[in-house]
C-alpha cells in the first residue's frame, strides 16, 4: 500500500478511536441533535396536515403519500452531507487546540490523504446514524419501502466522490479562515434546504432551483426516493444518474483544486506549519 493510503487508514482509525472515547458526544452529534433539530419538528408538522393518514399535497407533488418514508430518504443524505461539510473544519480546530495539528501535517504524505482519512471515518459513522434515524422515523410514521430499496446503495456509492469534494472544500475554508466551523455548519444547513431534504425541490423559487441541481445530494436523495418508494423523480432516472455522477465529479475536482491552492498559498506565506 502507498504511503498516502496508509496515512488515510491511520487517520481514519485515529479519529474512530478518539470518537469512541466520547460515546455520548458522538451520539449527541450524530443522532440526538438531528433528531430534535430537524426530524421531530418536520415529522410532527407534516403529520399535523395529514388527511386520513395521507399527505395529499405530497402525493400530488411527488407521487407518494408516504411522508415518513419520503422524509427518511432525505435524512440519510442530509446527515452524511452535513457531517462531511462540517467535520474537517471541526477536526482541524480540535487538533489545533490540542497542539497536534503541526505534528500530523509534518508527515511526508499528501495532506489530501489526511483530510480524506478523516472523511472516511465520518462518512461511515454518519451513514450509520442516517440509517438509524431513517429506521426510527419509519417506525414512528409507518413508512413502507419497496424491493427497489437495494438500489439506494449504488446511488450513495456514486455520491461518495462528491462527499470527498465537500470535505476538501471544508478543509480549504478552514485553511483560509482558521475558525471556519460556523461557516461550514451553515453551509451544511444551506445544502439541507437546497437538496430538498424536508420538502420537494419543485417548490423552490425559480432562482434557487438551478443551484439545487448543482448539488449531488439533490440527485442522490431524489433517486433514493424513487427506488425505495416509487416516488416521481424530477427527471428520468437515467438523466438523474448522469447528473449525480457529473456533479459528484465536479465537486471532487473543485474541492481538490481549491484545497491544493490554499495549501500552496499557506506554504508560500510560511503559515502552514503554524496554522
Automatic annotation (TrEMBL):
Keywords, in A-Z order = Antibiotic resistance, Cell membrane, Membrane, Transmembrane, Transmembrane helix, Transport
Q: Where is the ABC transmembrane type-2 domain?
A: 32-262
Please give one Pfam family short name: ABC2_membrane
> Which parts pass through the membrane?
24-50, 114-145, 151-175, 187-205, 238-259
Please name the PANTHER family in this protein's record. ABC-TYPE MULTIDRUG TRANSPORT SYSTEM, PERMEASE COMPONENT, NODULATION PROTEIN J
Membrane disposition: Multi-pass membrane protein
List this protein's GO terms for biological process: response to antibiotic
Q: Which family does it belong to?
A: Belongs to the ABC-2 integral membrane protein family.
Give the protein's recorded name: Transport permease protein
**Compartment annotation:** Cell membrane; Membrane
Q: Indicate whether Cell membrane appears among the record's keywords.
A: yes
A single Gene Ontology MF term assigned here is: ABC-type transporter activity
Q: Which GO terms describe its cellular component?
A: ATP-binding cassette (ABC) transporter complex
Lineage, top-rank taxon, reads Bacteria
State the species of origin.
Answer: Actinomadura verrucosospora
UniProt keyword annotation of Protease present: no
Amino acid at each position: 500500500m502507498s504511503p498516502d493510503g496508509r496515512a488515510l487508514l491511520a487517520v481514519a482509525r485515529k479519529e474512530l478511536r478518539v470518537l469512541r472515547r466520547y460515546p455520548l458526544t458522538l451520539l449527541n452529534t450524530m443522532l440526538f441533535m438531528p433528531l430534535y433539530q430537524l426530524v421531530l419538528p418536520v415529522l410532527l408538522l407534516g403529520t399535523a396536515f395529514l388527511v386520513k393518514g395521507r399527505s395529499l399535497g405530497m402525493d400530488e407533488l411527488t407521487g407518494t403519500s408516504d411522508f415518513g418514508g419520503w422524509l427518511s430518504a432525505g435524512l440519510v443524505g442530509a446527515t452524511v452531507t452535513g457531517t462531511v461539510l462540517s467535520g474537517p473544519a471541526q477536526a482541524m480546530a480540535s487538533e489545533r487546540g490540542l497542539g497536534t495539528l503541526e505534528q500530523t501535517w509534518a508527515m511526508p504524505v499528501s495532506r489530501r490523504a489526511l483530510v480524506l482519512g478523516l472523511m472516511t471515518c465520518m462518512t461511515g459513522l454518519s451513514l450509520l446514524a442516517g440509517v438509524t434515524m431513517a429506521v426510527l422515523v419509519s417506525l414512528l410514521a409507518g413508512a413502507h419501502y419497496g424491493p427497489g430499496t437495494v438500489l439506494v446503495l449504488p446511488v450513495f456509492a456514486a455520491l461518495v466522490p462528491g462527499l470527498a469534494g465537500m470535505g476538501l472544500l471544508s478543509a480549504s475554508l478552514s485553511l483560509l479562515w482558521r475558525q471556519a466551523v460556523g461557516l461550514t455548519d451553515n453551509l451544511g444547513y444551506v445544502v439541507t434546504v437546497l437538496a430538498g431534504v424536508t420538502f420537494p425541490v419543485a417548490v423552490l423559487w425559480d432562482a434557487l432551483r438551478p443551484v439545487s441541481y448543482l448539488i449531488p445530494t439533490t440527485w442522490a436523495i431524489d433517486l433514493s426516493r424513487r427506488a425505495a418508494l416509487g416516488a416521481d423523480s424530477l427527471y428520468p432516472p437515467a438523466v438523474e444518474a448522469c447528473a449525480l455522477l457529473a456533479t459528484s465529479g465536479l465537486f471532487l475536482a473543485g474541492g481538490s483544486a481549491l484545497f491544493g491552492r490554499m495549501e500552496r498559498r499557506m506554504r508560500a506565506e510560511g503559515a502552514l506549519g503554524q496554522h
